[in-house]
């Protein structure tokens, strides 16, 4: 059996939600809503590719959006809590101590309309980039080791697609169910 390559299961940029870095956060929500209305598309996207001058330069993920809408998370030092069990008590303490999500929902609309995409987008690190010829197993290692999802796929230094963990899982599930029993 041929070793599966990232290019075989990635979503091409042409089939992904894409916005310019000159917009605001609410533009990303509109683009995602518009994409979801098209029934011919794959599973809905929750992330957006960000372009500048027609080239993909970043991504905007659910985590990026949530952190932008509640900037007080920047004051939490994750290393201070590393290795501790995330109990309900600890979460409640952090919410009170840092005033997380204390603003009314109406404030979210103002924030989403004022935050620039360029200020909240995530510039990918080297570990978040795959080559089209990389194996699916190589991609799985990155996911398991905790890279910022999804992974961007490139050819000759240009982003050509997106590899989501759910798509890798679906691919593996299909392959495993095709195996003979026993």
First-last Cα distance = 19 Å
Overall tally of domains:
1
Name the CATH superfamily assignment: CBS-domain
Structural class: alpha/beta
Give the helix tally. 9
- Beta content: 15-25%
Quaternary structure state of the chains depicted: single chain
Q: What is the CATH class name?
A: Alpha Beta
How many beta-strand elements?
7
Instruction: Return Rg in Å.
Output: 19 Å
Strand order of the largest sheet: 1-7-6-5
Q: Could you name the key traits of this structure?
A:
182 residues; alpha/beta; CBS-domain; four-stranded mixed beta sheet; three-stranded mixed beta sheet; 9 helices; 7 strands
Task: Provide the fold topology.
Blueprint: H1 6-9, E1 11-12, E2 18-20, H2 25-37, E3 48-52, E4 55-60, H3 62-69, H4 78-81, H5 88-98, H6 105-114, H7 117-120, E5 129-131, H8 136-144, E6 151-155, E7 158-163, H9 165-178
How would you describe this structure to a colleague?
This protein has 182 residues and is an alpha/beta fold. The chain has a single domain, classed as CBS-domain. 42% of the residues lie in helices and 16% in strands. It has helices at residues 6-9, 25-37, 62-69, 78-81, 88-98, 105-114, 117-120, 136-144, 165-178, and strands at residues 11-12, 18-20, 48-52, 55-60, 129-131, 151-155, 158-163. It has a 4-stranded mixed beta sheet with strand order 1-7-6-5. Strand 2 (18-20), helix 2 and strand 3 form a beta-alpha-beta unit. The longest helix is centred in the C-terminal third of the chain and has 14 residues, at 165-178. The radius of gyration is 19 Å and the shape is globular. The protein starts with 5 loop residues before the first helix and ends with a helix. The mean pLDDT is 87.
């Amino acid at each position: 059996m041929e070793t599966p390559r990232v290019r075989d299961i990635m979503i091409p940029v042409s089939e992904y939600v894409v916005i310019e870095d000159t917009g605001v956060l609410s533009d990303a929500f509109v683009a995602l809503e518009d994409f979801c209305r098209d029934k011919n598309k794959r599973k809905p996207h929750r992330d957006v590719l960000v372009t500048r001058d027609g080239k993909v330069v970043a991504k905007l993920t659910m985590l990026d959006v949530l952190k932008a809408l509640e900037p007080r998370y920047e004051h939490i030092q994750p290393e201070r809590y590393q290795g501790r069990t995330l109990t309900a008590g600890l979460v409640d303490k952090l919410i009170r101590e840092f005033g997380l999500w204390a603003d009314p929902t109406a404030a979210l609309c103002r924030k989403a309309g004022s935050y620039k995409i360029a200020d909240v987008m995530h510039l990918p690190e080297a570990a978040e980039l795959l080559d089209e010829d990389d194996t699916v197993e190589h991609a799985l290692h990155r996911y398991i080791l905790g890279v910022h999802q999804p992974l961007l796929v490139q050819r000759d230094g240009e982003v050509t697609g997106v590899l989501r963990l759910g798509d890798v899982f679906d691919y593996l599930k299909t392959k495993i169910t095709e195996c003979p029993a026993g």
